[in-house]
Amino acid sequence: MKNIDVYGVCNPLMDLLCHIPDEFLEQHNLEKNRMYLVSTEEQKSLLKAVEQENQKIEYAAGGSGANTMIGIAQLGGQSAFTGKIGLDQRGNQYHEDLENKGVKSTLATGEGMTGSSLILVSSDGSRTMNTHLGMCQELQPNDID
Q: What residue ranges do the domains of the chain occupy?
């Protein structure tokens, strides 16, 4: 890849960001400021609870590596990013969001769900993350361009 300043390889996670009252965390036995690795079912259950609270959910391409590549692109650098996403709606959203933010996407795909992190933001700005890694875990050396 010519003309790329930085090439990132990391876990592509679709961020599902929502602001919630602290009581929500208490009701769901979640400790503020922690990151939980959760199953698909656990994440879906929490997402349903958030939706029942009529909380707005924002979607964005995330994961530490992608966030770094986005920052580099926003500062005028040429960045590219790879990882593994699923052949699903979130995977399509993820790819599109990266490209729209100026990051060249070389994402591998596979049968399965794109990883996602349900990020619950408290009134004091604390973030409690509920992450399902999905296809991130399936990245193989031959997936990297």
A: 6-143
Q: In angstroms, rounded to a whole number, what is the distance separating the alpha carbons of residues 70 and 73?
A: 5
Order across the sheet with 13-19: list the strands: 35-37, 127-132, 116-121, 13-19, 58-62
**Which pLDDT score, from 0 to 100, does residue 1 have?**
64
The superfamily in CATH containing domain 6-143 is Ribokinase (3.40.1190.20)
Quick check: 120 and 136 in contact, CB under 8 A?
no
Candidates 1, 25, 6; CA nearest to 129 is: 25
Ordered mean pLDDT values, 10 residues apiece, the chain (145 residues): 90 97 95 97 96 91 97 98 97 97 96 97 97 96 87
Q: How far apart are alpha carbons 3 and 115 in whole angstroms?
A: 29
pTM: 0.92
**Overall size of the chain counted in residues:** 145
